[in-house]
Amino acid sequence: MPEPREGLYGVIAEFETPGELVRAAKAAHDAGWRRMDCYTPYPVEEAAEAIGFHTNKVPLLTLVGGIMGLVAMFSLETWVSTLAYPLNIGGRPTYSWPAFIIPTYEWTILFAGLSAAFGMIALNGLPSLYHPLFNAPNFRSGALDDKFFLCLEALDPKFDVAETKAYLESFKPNSVVEVEY
Questions:
Q1: What angle, 0 to 180 degrees and rounded to 10, lies between the N-to-C axes of helices 101-123 and 58-79?
Q2: Average pLDDT of the chain?
Q3: Are 1 and 117 spatial neighbours (Cβ–Cβ below 8 Å)?
Q4: Could you tell me which residues are beta bridge partners of residue 11?
Q5: Distance CA 4, CA 42 (A)
Q6: CA distance 116 to 97
Q7: I need a labelling partner for 50 at 20 to 30 A (CA). Which of 76, 86, 91, 140 fits?
Q8: 97-136: per-residue pLDDT in tens?
Q9: Which among 49, 3, 9, 14 is positioned nearest to 30, based on CA atoms?
């Protein structure tokens, strides 16, 4: 198998409808392509399913962040009330965990929300001011408006420029373009 050209990101095909994109993406995934992505002007969940996108780590990050907030606040309140600044008020015990519930809950929600927001930003690779697809002229003119794109990346083991272009042209897209870095 020939190596991809230096400076080549992949080959992108432009489709008119989301149905065409989903059919092409499903066929490419079934044919063994794994390094590919779909670009649409609005969310098309069928396209994500077609390319085999199943991992979503944001819920796990949110859970971990919430647990960290819970443990951090409960530990802080326990340390303050028992070791750092114990107060004997009316003969009550210094460690009175029911008083810790409201602040602990608030910190749990705060840490979970911040973990979800910053985790999503980090997992999406943002902020990203540049992407090689911006070099494709058909992508610049149609990605935000009304076109649907399937990009087969050069890092895929099956990638060969001529074969990939012929494969994508078999789906009868509007255009097939090589994408340079």
A1: 150
A2: 91
A3: no
A4: 152, 178
A5: 31
A6: 28
A7: 140
A8: 998 999 999 999 999 999 999 999 999 888 888 889 888 8
A9: 49
